[in-house]
Amino acid sequence: MQARPTPQQADAHEPTPQERSRAVRATAHHANDAAQLAELLDMLGLDPDEGRGGGVPQARSGGPSAA
User: Fold this and answer.
1) What value does the mean pLDDT take over residues 40-56?
2) Domain assignment present for 27
């Protein structure tokens, strides 16, 4: 029987670059202005440039926009 991880071990997961990018974009979506965004990102230990990692999504083939 394995021991349950402590809260410190459970929180030890290092987010992937994709997770960090999504976190930056989600924070930007909810921030009221640039100053608030900068403060929130600083508190979270995120860099604004990390939100640009996803790039522009490619159009999916076979959808309604595919002609």
Assistant:
1) 85
2) yes
The structural domain count of the chain equals 1
Q: Name the pLDDT band for 56 (thresholds 50, 70, 90).
A: very low
Rounded to whole angstroms, the Cα distance separating 49 from 52 reads 6
In a domain, 20, yes or no: yes
Task: Note whether 52 and 28 are within 8 A (CB).
Answer: no
Residues 6+ apart with CB under 8 A from 22: 54
With respect to residue 6, please indicate whether it lies within any of the assigned structural domains: no
**DSSP 8-class letter at 51:** G
The structure's pTM equals: 0.61
